[in-house]
Specification:
This protein is an alpha/beta fold. The chain has helices spanning about 10-20, 35-45, 60-65, 80-90, 105-110, 115-120, 135-145, 175-180, 225-230, 245-255, 275-285, 325-345, 355-360, 360-370, and strands at about 1-5, 25-30, 50-55, 70-75, 95-100, 120-125, 145-160, 185-190, 190-195, 205, 210-220, 235-245, 265, 270, 290-305, 305-320, 350-355, 375-385. The strands form three sheets. Strands 7, 8, 9, 10, 11, 12, 15, 16 and 18 form a nine-stranded mixed sheet that branches.
Length: about 375
């Protein structure tokens, strides 16, 4: 069996690196159309056994020639490629995993369930950090409680040493970041699926030093399919992004001025998209390198055996400077690699299209994270009914 990782950017490199250390597959191929990006990845992945290959995902026939029945394709590409790659995976009887990133694309992939099942293929979108890891944690909450009152997901990728003006570091596509801030957030409220405006419902939460008090606010995408999967099980579920204090207010001001608008305007005689300008300014003025950290807290409440229970998950993960793997790469890419290994080893055997909360077993998944130095601390408290 071979695993083909498409996309040699930050996440693709992390996935390929992890697979080279922990998987027992025969071959790992890293495909990328941009030769400069592929060369950079090759230098980081030297001596790992990963095979770089120039490959354009737009040319599906090229991808098709590489994979065979039983192989695994992993998409570390922008979400616009994922539906077509899922279709290709079904045609070639190849398993497929992606990072998600767009609710509509994921819903379209889920409509391929019957065809995937018939061709004995496993397709798992949304397999990164949020959605992904947080989805599996939500599954774990449901497994441990008889009734679930609430699940509150809080995640943030941040610079270890914040710098003004935004105290933020670009850890993935600026367009993805803007999308999270402008699209509505899906939540569960009293068992009903609701849309709420992002960058709202600001709250404070505390972390161990040196972080202390942080802020969190609603953003889109983190819940993905969770409200649909658990509508009959969880009364309240929401996802908020963690930032250093003051970030939300600044972003709201910027967006109120129209910098995220996609419709082109005339500026100095040229037609330009404000969103393109904003993305370019972010890349120019906000750090893209430096030590980063991923913070996560998940709060849940419910009952078990007639008693009130609260279950909390804490993760603080730092960058791997020795191997040039950022914390965001570790916490997003490694879960994808673990999921692929579970398919390869037969731990995951279901055939069809599933999101992580539906098919990834939490306990072995958490064990695999621990082997990679990603420590998930779980605390549970009980009280009177």
């Amino acid at each position: 069996m071979k695993i083909l990782v498409l996309g040699a950017g930050m996440m693709g490199r992390a996935i390929a690196y992890d697979l080279s250390r922990f998987s027992s597959v025969d071959e790992i191929i890293l495909g990328e159309k941009d030769k400069k990006t592929l060369l950079e990845a090759t230098q980081i992945l030297k001596d790992t056994g990963v095979k770089p290959r120039t490959m354009d995902a737009e040319n599906l026939s090229t991808v098709k020639r590489v994979v065979q029945k039983g192989d695994i394709i992993i998409s570390a590409l922008p979400y616009i490629y994922n539906y077509r790659l899922a279709q290709l995976a079904i045609q070639t009887r190849t398993h497929f995993i992606d990072l998600g990133g767009n609710n509509t694309v994921v819903q379209n992939e889920r409509r391929l369930f019957t065809k995937a099942e018939q061709n004995e293929v496993t397709i798992i979108p949304d397999s990164g950090l949020a959605p992904g890891l947080v989805s599996i944690i939500t599954h774990d909450v449901v497994d441990h409680l008889d009734t679930v009152e609430s699940v509150r997901l809080r995640v943030g990728g941040l610079p270890r040493h914040p710098q003004p003006p935004l105290n933020y570091q670009i850890v993935f596509s600026p367009y993805g970041l803007i999308n999270e801030y402008v699209e509505d957030a899906l939540i569960l409220e009293k068992g009903k699926i609701l849309s709420k405006k992002s960058l709202t419902e600001l709250e404070s939460l505390s972390f161990p030093k040196p972080f202390g008090t942080m802020e969190a606010f609603l953003t889109s995408g983190g819940c993905s399919t969770l409200p649909y999967t658990y509508q009959q099980t969880i009364q309240h579920l929401d996802y908020k992004t963690i930032r250093y204090p003051g970030h939300c207010e600044k972003m709201n001001t910027i967006l109120a001025m129209g910098f995220a608008e996609e419709k082109k305007i005339t500026c100095a005689g040229q037609k330009v998209s404000p969103r393109d300008v904003f993305a370019s300014l972010l890349l120019k003025n906000i750090p893209t390198t430096g030590e980063d950290v991923v913070l996560m807290k998940v709060f849940s409440k419910g009952t078990r055996q007639g008693k009130n229970r609260s279950r909390e998950y804490l993760m603080i993960d730092s960058c791997d400077t020795k191997n040039n793997i950022t914390a965001m790469m570790r916490t997003t890419g490694y879960p994808v690699a673990i999921t692929a290994q579970m398919i390869a080893e037969g731990t995951i055997q279901g055939r069809g299209v599933f999101c992580p909360e539906e098919i990834v077993p939490p306990a072995p998944f958490f064990d695999a994270l621990k082997k990679r130095g990603i420590n998930l601390i779980i605390r549970e408290k009980s009280g009177s009914p």
